[in-house]
Design brief:
The structure is a single chain. The protein is of the alpha+beta class. The protein has one domain (2-216): Glutaredoxin, CATH 3.40.30. The chain contains 9 helices and 4 strands. It has a 4-stranded mixed sheet with strand order 2-1-3-4. Helix 1 runs parallel beside helix 3 (69-86) and helix 1 packs across helix 9 (200-216). The two termini are 15 Å apart.
Length: 218
C-alpha cells in the first residue's frame, strides 16, 4: 500500500474546509488497502485582523465577495446542503459573527504533539458552525479540547501564555510564501496541491494519480 503525506492548510472559520476534509475522508475510505495517508493540519487565518467582538458574518461575506442578500442566502443553502451530504451540520443564523481563530491554531499546534489534530479540528468546526459558539472564548475552546479527548488543564496552560504563537505565525508565513492564498488547500507529498472543497471522487482520482506518479519516479 502506498502512503501519501497530506498537509491540509485551513481555517476553522472556513465552511468549505470541513466539507473538503469530509470528502477527503470519504475518498481515503474508498482507497483503503490501496492508498493510505499521513495527515497534518496547518494554520491559515481568513480574518487575522478580525476584531475581538467579530462582525456580522453575512455583511462580511456580502462585502468581501460583492454578493447581494439573495446571493448570500443561496450560498448558505448550498453550503448547508453540501454539509448534509458529508454528515456535517451547518446552523447559519442572521446574527452569526466572524471570529478571530488564532487561539484555535495555537491549540491545533499543541494537539499535533499528541497526534490528535484531526479530533480537535473537527470539534472546533462543530463549535463554530454547528453550535454557533465563540471560538475566541477560552471556555468554548476548552470544551472543544475536552470533546476531542485531550487534557483540558494542559490546554488551559497553553491559552494562558504565548505558547506556540510564534510557531503559528511562522507556519502561516511559510504557506503564504509557498503561494497558498485560499483554503482549503491540500498539499500531497509536498508538491501537489488540491484546492477547494472537492467531491470525494475528485480526491480519489487525484490521489491515485499522485500515488502512481510517485511509483513511476521511484
Amino acid at each position: 500500500m502506498k502512503t501519501l503525506t497530506i498537509d491540509v492548510v485551513s481555517d476553522v472559520a472556513c465552511p468549505w474546509c470541513v466539507i473538503g476534509y469530509k470528502n477527503l475522508e470519504q475518498a481515503l475510505e474508498q482507497l483503503e488497502g490501496e492508498i493510505g495517508a499521513q495527515l497534518s493540519w496547518h494554520a491559515f487565518e481568513l480574518r487575522p485582523d478580525a476584531p475581538a467582538e467579530g462582525e456580522n458574518w453575512r455583511e462580511h461575506i456580502m462585502a468581501k465577495y460583492g454578493m447581494s442578500y439573495e446571493q448570500s442566502e443561496d450560498n448558505r443553502k448550498r453550503i448547508t446542503a453540501a454539509g448534509e451530504g458529508v454528515g456535517f451540520t451547518f446552523n447559519f443564523t442572521d446574527d452569526m459573527r466572524t471570529q478571530n481563530t488564532f487561539n484555535c491554531h495555537r491549540l491545533l499546534h499543541w494537539a499535533k504533539e499528541m497526534d490528535q489534530q484531526t479530533a480537535l479540528k473537527l470539534a472546533l468546526f462543530e463549535a463554530y458552525f454547528t453550535d454557533r459558539t465563540d471560538v475566541n472564548d477560552t471556555s468554548v475552546l476548552l470544551d472543544a479540547v475536552n470533546k476531542a479527548g485531550l487534557d483540558r488543564d494542559s490546554a488551559a496552560s497553553v491559552l494562558s501564555t504565548d505558547q506556540f504563537e510564534q510557531e503559528v505565525r511562522n507556519e502561516e508565513g511559510r504557506y503564504q510564501q509557498m503561494g497558498v492564498s485560499s483554503v482549503p488547500t491540500f498539499i500531497v507529498n509536498g508538491k501537489y496541491a488540491i484546492t477547494g472543497g472537492q467531491p470525494a471522487d475528485v480526491f480519489v482520482e487525484a490521489l491515485r494519480q499522485i500515488a502512481n506518479e510517485s511509483v513511476d519516479s521511484a
